[in-house]
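Field reference: sequence -> structure
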Amino acid sequence: MPAMRVFALSYLALPILLALTASAPPAALADEPGIVEKKDPGNPSGSLSPKQQLDNLFTALKRQRDPDQASLIADQINTELSDSGSATINLLMQWADKAIQDKRNAAAMDYLDQVISLKPDYVEGWNRRATLNFAIGDYRKSMEDINQVLRIEPRHFGALAGMAAILTERGNDALALRAWERFLEVYPANRSAQEEAAKLSEKVAGSRT
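Structure field:
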């Protein structure tokens, strides 16, 4: 499998992660580079809403120029996006992941269909199904799911990477380059995306001469 395809697939298929920083004291969070603290002085509960937290993380990701620190922020974003807020949905997602690992694609697809039916605004349900369709080579359905991901969360860099991979597989280098450029607007410190955009830029420029 080409390196770019593996890179894109790895971003599409990010697993549900445990929020390891949730139990850390506020002081430790504030001192850790790349970690966005969940505090709001104007909020008596001292915590941000999920949307506010996600917005802060994306802002931090866009500003961060150190690749390692940016990766920590990206991991936080994926943790936030993966949490459905529903025990039922989270369990279905775990079953889908296990089925994918066991190469039971039909069962995994059924679980993901249920997730999307029960919670159509849950971005990771669409993203995980896009991953599965991408893996089995159904690029049309994968692109349809990616478009749903980006409709819900236009900053979803994993979906943008998947879109770029599909467009590249189809030989549409100019549009693939635009997808990587959109990725880099969200996540500018990602070296692999920088390299892919640079290679495609040269290729597209060469085809025009």
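Note: Residues 12-35 have pLDDT under 50 and may be disordered.
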